[in-house]
Amino acid sequence: MLEQDIERVLFSEEELDKRVSEIAAEINRDYAGKEPMLISVLRGSFVFMADLTRKIEVPCTIDFMSVSSYGKGTTSSGQVQITKDLSDDIEGKDIIVVEDILDSGNTLSYLLELLRARKPASMKLCTLLDKPDRRVKEVHVDYSGFTIPDEFVVGYGLDYAEKYRNLPYIGILKPRVYGGEG
Ligand SMILES: O=P(O)(O)OC[C@H]1O[C@H](OP(=O)(O)OP(=O)(O)O)[C@H](O)[C@@H]1O
Ligand code: HPA
Ligand SMILES: [Mg+2]
């Protein structure tokens, strides 16, 4: 049973829904009269992206990019691999990069630099979770859902070794699952 691997729930389905609505309201206000392009960083952000997008009321487009740097561990390898690039051109567009979590910052510092070089009209970062204690690369955040402690979290799109993405809440994984203490 998946539930047995969860130490405690950090954010319930209801809390996530409320916070996602608040972020969407900020974006709706900031992008009034514009047509942003939301870029989902796969795979982790797919659930957040789907929920956020349905609460966006300004006209928008979406695209997906897939990157990976964690493999089967709980610490960043530091090697960011692009496994799928965007389908569309972003030059001159107002883009919003949608991420599930900002942790070491390795993924986003690499990705944002790469996207900036493609000359979007503007670029903002929207991350559901921010784990500042683990940061090794500085990244500027425009929209942040929750600041979290230095714990490995799963659910609502976030995985450990590709599992638990289907949990409707965000929970702290028991350290014994990944061979840590406890
Ligand atoms: O700030 P960082 O330390 O780089 O960590 C954050 C990134 O790591 C995870 O992706 P992962 O590489 O595990 O791929 P996934 O999205 O497919 O799970 C997560 O979804 C973020 O993209
Ligand atoms: O805490 C985390 N959980 C899942 N994936 C992650 N990628 C970076 N940090 C995390
Ligand atoms: Mg992952």
UniProtKB/TrEMBL annotation:
<feature type="domain" description="Phosphoribosyltransferase">
    <location>
        <begin position="15"/>
        <end position="160"/>
    </location>
</feature>
<comment type="function">
    <text>Purine salvage pathway enzyme that catalyzes the transfer of the ribosyl-5-phosphate group from 5-phospho-alpha-D-ribose 1-diphosphate (PRPP) to the N9 position of the 6-oxopurines hypoxanthine and guanine to form the corresponding ribonucleotides IMP (inosine 5'-monophosphate) and GMP (guanosine 5'-monophosphate), with the release of PPi.</text>
</comment>
<dbReference type="GO" id="GO:0005829">
    <property type="term" value="C:cytosol"/>
</dbReference>
<dbReference type="InterPro" id="IPR029057">
    <property type="entry name" value="PRTase-like"/>
</dbReference>
<dbReference type="GO" id="GO:0046100">
    <property type="term" value="P:hypoxanthine metabolic process"/>
</dbReference>
<dbReference type="InterPro" id="IPR050408">
    <property type="entry name" value="HGPRT"/>
</dbReference>
<dbReference type="GO" id="GO:0000287">
    <property type="term" value="F:magnesium ion binding"/>
</dbReference>
<keyword id="KW-0963">Cytoplasm</keyword>
<dbReference type="GO" id="GO:0006178">
    <property type="term" value="P:guanine salvage"/>
</dbReference>
<protein>
    <recommendedName>
        <fullName>Hypoxanthine phosphoribosyltransferase</fullName>
        <ecNumber>2.4.2.8</ecNumber>
    </recommendedName>
</protein>
<keyword id="KW-0547">Nucleotide-binding</keyword>
<dbReference type="InterPro" id="IPR000836">
    <property type="entry name" value="PRTase_dom"/>
</dbReference>
<dbReference type="Pfam" id="PF00156">
    <property type="entry name" value="Pribosyltran"/>
</dbReference>
<dbReference type="InterPro" id="IPR005904">
    <property type="entry name" value="Hxn_phspho_trans"/>
</dbReference>
<comment type="pathway">
    <text>Purine metabolism; GMP biosynthesis via salvage pathway; GMP from guanine: step 1/1.</text>
</comment>
<dbReference type="GO" id="GO:0032263">
    <property type="term" value="P:GMP salvage"/>
</dbReference>
<dbReference type="GO" id="GO:0004422">
    <property type="term" value="F:hypoxanthine phosphoribosyltransferase activity"/>
</dbReference>
<keyword id="KW-0460">Magnesium</keyword>
<keyword id="KW-0479">Metal-binding</keyword>
<comment type="similarity">
    <text>Belongs to the purine/pyrimidine phosphoribosyltransferase family.</text>
</comment>
<dbReference type="GO" id="GO:0032264">
    <property type="term" value="P:IMP salvage"/>
</dbReference>
<keyword id="KW-0660">Purine salvage</keyword>
<dbReference type="GO" id="GO:0006166">
    <property type="term" value="P:purine ribonucleoside salvage"/>
</dbReference>
<keyword id="KW-0328">Glycosyltransferase</keyword>
<comment type="pathway">
    <text>Purine metabolism; IMP biosynthesis via salvage pathway; IMP from hypoxanthine: step 1/1.</text>
</comment>
<dbReference type="GO" id="GO:0000166">
    <property type="term" value="F:nucleotide binding"/>
</dbReference>
<dbReference type="GO" id="GO:0052657">
    <property type="term" value="F:guanine phosphoribosyltransferase activity"/>
</dbReference>
<keyword id="KW-0808">Transferase</keyword>
